[in-house]
Amino acid sequence: MSNTNLFESFAEFKEFKSIDRETMMRILEDVFRNMLIKKHGTDENFDIIINPDEGDLEIWRNREIVPDGEVEDDNSQIALSEAIKIEPDFEIGEEATEAIKLEHFGRRSILSMRQNLVSKVIELEKDSLYKKYSERVGEIITGEVYQVWKREILLLDDEGNELILPKSEQIPSDYFKKGDAVRAVVSKVEMRNNNPIVILSRTATEFLERMFEMEVPEVFDGLITIKKIVRVPGERAKVAVESYDDRIDPVGACVGMKGSRIHSIVRELKNENIDVINYTSNIQLLIQRALSPAKITNIKINEEEMKAEVFLKPDQVSLAIGKGGFNIKLASKLTGYDLDVYRETEEDDEDVDLDEFADEIDGWIIDELKAVGLDSARSVLELTKEDLVSRTDLEEETIAEIIKILREELD
Questions:
Q1: Are 205 and 229 in contact (CB under 8 A)?
Q2: What are the C-alpha distances in Å from 249 to residues 36, 104, 246, 260, 362?
Q3: Please, what are the domains in the chain?
Q4: Which pTM does this prediction carry?
Q5: Are 55 and 3 in contact (CB under 8 A)?
Q6: Where are the alpha helices (DSSP H) in 269-395?
Q7: % residues pLDDT > 90 (the chain)
Q8: How many helices (H) and strands (E) does the chain have?
């Protein structure tokens, strides 16, 4: 095997793996020195000159010239009669430098060396990929969809490295096909079977935080601080922001003129509803803001048990709970308090708890009404039939029957 053929194959491998020149030279030298040690027991009297870009390899062996018949070590000594064949002017005691051809090692050693080289480069690539993405955990990257599977999507970055976006880390309404550009945050890097696996996420709170940094310069510059983010991916998110500069309105800056900044984030998150609120250390005020857009009339806080009783007018209860209960769940997570919602009614208003109708209305129907904040007869009757149908999963005929039963009772 000639130098040219050997290095042509190495050059192709180097280009495919994007190994820099300096690293490739170091690996090549290590591999060749290991081969020299294996064949001669030492590499101390060898010089290796490598130029991967040109495909050049030179190995020079340095040996002491001794009189004929006094050679004790073929590797470190050379007889005068042999030395003058290299250079006629050589004399005893001098050092003879001789070029070593690859053929000197034999075909088997060269093939073994090449396998060793490939193994080292692959290992280096794995270490490099692991280190690169371990340092980028929490950063947003863009990858191109290469293959779509049932449980995950395979993406490729700009250098052709493979990235994984599991189904569990995708927004429920995400839909990607081959060739699509996908933005996600680096969630973690794992080693599986000695291979680095880069896991991406679009559901992590860090993804939403990085999106704010990209779209809101004041957040990127540190003028606005994101204190906390809670979200139900694809449904709703609440972001508490704060600014130490009184001249900056943190909520207004994050939303942007006519919602220009927040809209680009919402589009990326598949129309996830994002509430941006001013952070405050006043827990009562924070709870009020967290339950937006509902308007609260009164709050009773139990700091020891980290609970709060929230009182609202009847028409505000469903707003506080939100579709699917997401609003109150996220408000609880944001504030750190368990929130219980109560309906405020006038003292002279007669009302009956829905549980009192258990004999006439099925339990699952009562539970369905309670799930959207309707826990009394009057709270149900205050809404139109159309509102009740849109807020619950109940049929129109069922709603009509419920209204009839409740009205008869109150009348």
A1: yes
A2: 70, 76, 7, 16, 50
A3: 3-131 (3.30.1480), 142-201 (2.40.50.140), 354-410 (1.10.150)
A4: 0.66
A5: yes
A6: 283-290, 314-321, 326-335, 363-371, 377-381, 385-391
A7: 40
A8: 15, 15
